[in-house]
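Ligand: MU-OXO-diiron. Inputs:
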Amino acid sequence: MHCIKKINNDLYWVGANDRRLAMFEGVYSVAGGVSYNSYLLTDEKTVLFDTCDKAVHQRFLENVSYALNGKKLDYIVVQHMEPDHSAALKEVIKLYPGVKIVCSAKTLVFIKQFFELNFDFENFSVIVNENDTLKTGRHTLQFIMAPMVHWPEVMVTYDTTDKILFSADAFGTFGALNGALFADEVDIEKDYMNEYRRYYANIVGKYGDQVQSLLQKASSVQIDMICPLHGFVWRNNFSSIINKYMLWSGYRYEEKGVMIAYASVYGNTENAAEILSCRLREKNIKTAMFDVSVTPASEIIASAFKWSHLVFASTTYNAGIFISMEDLINDLVAHNIQNRTVAIIENGSWAPTSGNLIREKLEECKNIKIIEKILSLKSSLKKGQLNEIDGLADAIAADFPESARSSAPLNSANEGDNASIDPNAMFKFSYGLFVLTAKDGSKDNGCIINTAIQITASPLRISIAVNKANYTHDMIIKTKAFNISILSESAPFSIYKQFGFSSGKETDKFAGCGYTDRAANGILYINEHANCMIAAKVIESHDYSTHTVFTAAVTQSKVLSNERSVTYQYYFDNIKPKPQPPKEKKGFVCRICGYVHEGDSLPKDFICPLCKHGAEDFDAF
Ligand code: FEO
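Predicted complex:
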C-alpha cells in the first residue's frame, strides 16, 4: 500500500524508510534506520526528484504511481547517482516510457556505468549545466551544480516558484522518519542532531570546501523549504541546520571541550585517559570519552567534528599504533579534520612508539596544534607521573578561559526550581523596543525586538537577541547584516502591529509605510517615531534554543530626534490597547499583542501565533 506525504498542493514525498539495514554504505551502523527521500512535483508537467535504494523500491514505485494519480511521468531529475537514490531508476524508465532524464553530463556517464539499458536514453536525456532552468508549468526549476557533495555528479535543484531547495545529500541525516516529515515535527536538537552530525562528518566531512561553495550559492536565493534526500524536510528554523553546516564545513568546532579517544588492551591506557578526564572536569572543562575498540568510528569522528580539543591515548601494538586507534586516526585524516588542538598519550611495555606515529599522521591535517609533550607510559601510569597528567591537563586548560568552562553542569537543579524562581522578576528588566530590519536580495523585512544593547564602546559593538521564529532572524543568519531603529515614545500602536504581529513571509512589512529610508548597507530603517538608527554587521552568533544572540560591529548610526526612547513598561502603560477578552467565554489573552486563545487550559509550550511569545505571557480570563 502506498505511503506518501503531501508537502504542498503539488509536491509529494514519495520516498520510503528502511529499518532493516544494518550498515549504511556497508560502514555506518543505522540503528534508527534511514529514509530514502524522493519527491514528486505534479505541475502541468510531472517531475520526479531521484528514486530510492533497491531495498525499498517496491513501496517507492507504489508511492509514485499513487501520487501521479493516472498522469504520465514527464521528467525524472537525477541529482545524485549513488545507488541509494538511483537504484530504481531503471524500473522507473521502464514503467514510464518516454520519461525524460534531467541530469548533469557527469550523471549520464554514471548512468551508463551502473546500468545496461536497452533504451536509447541519450535521446531521452536533458543535460543541464549551472543555472539552466526547466519550466514545468507554474514552476521553474533551476539546476545548481554541487560537485563532491557527496559525489562529483551531484547537483541540487531550486524551485524558483515555491522557493524550495532540493538539496540532494546536503542537510540530510541518518534515521527513519517515523511518520513525521518536517523537521519541526520532532525535537531535532535533542533527538536527531547527533545523527545529523554523524551523517555530515562521515558522508561529506571530507568535502568542506565544496559544501561551503554550495552554501555560498544557496545564500543568494530565498529559501522557504529544503528537501534533502535523507531525513527531514526543513520549512522553517533554517538557521539551526545551516549554522551547523557552516561550522562543520569550515572544520570549526561547535563546543569548547575535550574528546578523549583511547585504545587500551588491559585497561592501563584507559586508566590514564580516565585520570586526565577527571583532572579536566575538576577544571570545569567538558569531556567526552570513547573506547575506540567498542564505539563505532563514525560516532567518534562525529564527536571530533564537535569538540575543540582531541586526546588520543593508545597502547603500542606490533611496534605500531593499536589497530582500532590506527583505523580511527586514518579515518579522521581521510575526513580532513582540521583546526583542533591535540594531546597524545602512548603506552608500551618495552618500546612505546604509538605516540609519535599518531603525531606523524595527524601532522598531515591542516592547522592541527599538537601539544609538544607526549605522555609516555611503560605498561601503566606510575605515581611519579601524576604530575605529567596534571601538566597535560594544564596545557589543555590554558586554551580555556573561564568563560569557556562549565562552572556547573546545566541541569534543572542548578538552574533553580520553581519555588525559587519568581517569573515576575524577569519583568523588572528595563527593555526598550526596536524595529529590527534586514534585507535579503530584493526582499525587505522587519520585526519588533525588545533586546538590544551596546556591549563595548571601543571597539563599538552591540548585541541583539532575536526569536528564531521570526523571518528577519533567518535573513540575518544568511546576510549577516541588520539595522535597528530605536522606537520613541511617540511611536503609535500601528507600528508595533505592522512589524510585530505578522510574518514577513506572508506579508510585505513595509507596505504603505511612508517613513523609511535606506542606510548605507542597503537595509531600510524607520525615520519617524524612532530617535535613532544603527546599522550593524554580525561578527558572531550564539544559539540559545529559541533565540539567537547576534554580536555585531556598528557600521553606521544616526540620531533622528531628541524624543525619549520607549520602554517596554511605557508601551504597556500608554500605547498598547488593553486586551478585550470576549464576554462570557473562558480563555487566555496574550499580554503582548492581545491574541485570544479560547478554552479552559493553555498548553505550557503554547506559542502565540501572532507575536511568538510563550504561555508565560498569557493571562487567563
Ligand atoms: Fe545518500 Fe551520497 O547518497
